[in-house]
Design brief:
The chain has 7 helices and 10 strands. It is of the alpha+beta class. It has a single domain, classed as 2-Layer Sandwich (STM4215-like), CATH 3.30.2000. Strands 1, 2, 3, 4, 5, 8 and 9 form a 7-stranded mixed β-sheet that branches. The protein has a 3-stranded antiparallel β-sheet with strand order 7-6-10, covered by helices on one side. Strand 6 and strand 7 form a beta hairpin. Helix 6 packs across helix 7. The longest helix has 22 residues. It is globular, with a radius of gyration of 19 Å.
């Protein structure tokens, strides 16, 4: 297997930590906190991955999301020194640099009934217009010192489409599946530091517990969580 040039744990763990917070937000918003109904996948693989993660059952409703692209953030809203030289964190005796960034996600909601779709849309209206500020956080470790660092992620919706076309149209019509697509924007930060950035232990175990994956082994639990945060599907 070829080595990925972006296989930097600090970069990956920052993205994973943000995805975990976004999954919990969507789960609370649409499914009463049931995070098993929120999957990281493009539309092309959403049904397959949903089935793989749910004992072979599609079981609607569910939501899939995937990062589409990234853009430069608005540096004028952030202290220039935090970007250029970093913020010194006393507890870990190290600096962390915060670079403003905008992350754009494709999101789709799938349901059996039109009523479920209307319910989802109503919740979007309450969450729209940049009213929601999520608080992702990571654990930054320098030798024996560690500290949880939280930062802001402003969530907004830039578009919504009802009953979008899909490449499995015939299958959808026979099963009477309704769908809606959302364009989601997250205005947040990329973190850079010379020490280690990890996904917080509590975040890892809490996410796994939502799937009844209960073990005290951190490495096994972390692997389980990361598998849910990548678009790996059975072939």
């Amino acid at each position: 297997m070829s080595q990925k040039y972006y296989n930097d744990p600090n970069f990956l763990n920052t993205i994973y930590a943000l995805d975990l917070v976004l999954i919990q937000h969507f789960a609370d918003m649409f499914f009463g906190g049931d995070q098993t109904r929120v999957i990281y996948s493009s539309n092309e693989y959403a049904f397959r991955k949903r089935s793989d993660e749910n004992s072979g059952n599609l079981e609607l409703p569910f939501l899939n999301f995937k990062l589409r692209d990234m853009d430069l953030g608005n540096a004028s809203r952030w202290h220039p020194r935090a970007y250029s030289s970093g913020v010194f964190i006393d507890e870990i005796e190290a600096k962390v640099r915060f670079a403003p960034a905008v992350l754009n996600y494709d999101v789709s909601f799938w349901a059996h009934t039109d009523f479920d779709l209307k319910y989802a849309f109503t919740n979007v209206t309450w969450d729209a217009n940049n009213k929601t500020i999520l608080a992702p956080y990571v654990t930054v470790t320098n030798d024996l010192l560690s500290e949880d660092i939280a930062y802001a992620a402003h969530l907004s919706y830039t578009g919504m489409s009802y009953e979008t076309e899909y490449n499995e149209k015939d299958w959808l019509e026979r099963n009477k599946i309704h769908s809606a697509s959302l364009d989601v924007e997250m205005e947040t930060f990329n973190l850079i530091t010379d020490v280690n950035i990890d996904i917080p232990t509590t975040l890892v175990f809490n996410f796994a517990a939502g799937y009844n994956f209960n073990t005290s082994n951190y490495d096994d639990t972390l692997e389980f969580v990361i598998n849910h945060l990548t678009q790996e599907v059975e072939t």
